[in-house]
Task: structure prediction
Amino acid sequence: ECFKSPYVHIGMDEAFMLGLGKYMQQHGFRNRFDIFNEHLNKVVDMATSYGLKPIMWSDMFFRLANKGEYYTENPVFPKEIINKIPANVGLVYWDYYHTDEKYFTKMIKAHKEADNELWFAGGGWTFTGFASGNKYTLETMVPAMKAAKNENVDNIFIAMWGDNGKECSYFSMLPCLYKLRCVYDGETDEKTIKSNFKNIVGEDYDSLSDLDIPNYVGGQDCVIQNIAKNMLYSDPFLGYLDSVCKEQVSFEYNEHAERLSNNAKRSKEFAYLYESSSALCKLMSVKYGLGAKTRKAYMNKDKKLLKEVIDDYYKAEELLQIFYKKFKILWFEENKPHGFDVQDIRLGGLLFRLKSCKERLIDYMDGKIDNIPELDEKLLDFWGNGEEFKKQSPCLNEWHIISTVNRMI
Result:
């Protein structure tokens, strides 16, 4: 009775090692689909006993039929698997990544081989750090909406996950959410969409879309690369991500900070969003290249540059505390306090790490220590000369991997 909707999403996605771990130790090897289906039927029976309509991610059915792959070039959904799926469970095709309408159509048609109720779940990119992903969401979900409309799929939702800390505000995604509904309904004129958005939301469409820009620096054009988070937490002495730093980015962040600050002055409801994002950009104008600059000055034994670097550490500490206060306002405006302990630990840890590195640099400059061992190490290019940086990598949003090369958990 606590649910407003008769639908309940029972998940059951990405069970990659099903039947191959503790289960196999206890029961021996069994057909993995049989294990999956046995459990599924129990869960579906429980849901229906309460008058609920279960829906579930479809990927495991496709993976079991396509050698572990979900997004195959030619998806196969064989009848022997379809016939074992409970008739009263809805199948949710989830896809956050493709940009080709034809591929979405192909996958939808494959799902239609089953007679089960069909849903589509797109990805609203809130799950890579502090900055929103309106641009990438539209690049992927506009073709998805067109395919869904053409294939008469009318059960649609957009998943906005909070991976690894939930730093991103859901309200920052209003532009793409509104536009996706418009595209599905057949409205594609940009001026009309933006005008109607302003009338409904009371905010400027393009200004809210600017909340994407902390990740769009240095020529990078995809939110997956998550520059604002991974370079914020990248360690100044150990920073394996420094291999892709570009000097002009600090200037870009300064420009972004001013732009977002101006947006805050014009906003009726979301000034706190712009102020947090602006403070992040101001911080990143110093922190982004701090590790690379530190290493360069140290390796070249450039005392003048080292003095500048030490000043940058003082600036970074000050700007980090300003950002912390702005981000805290955002968090408590939109969320329960639960989870902000994570932000305290991470941002507080970053502050003390900046202080620690700064103090050791001062000791080195004053002759109290002869060297800084971390900076004596040759920095290898984690990204394969930058090429791998263009691809998706799971570590790009994992704080415990970004922040240190050592074991955090």
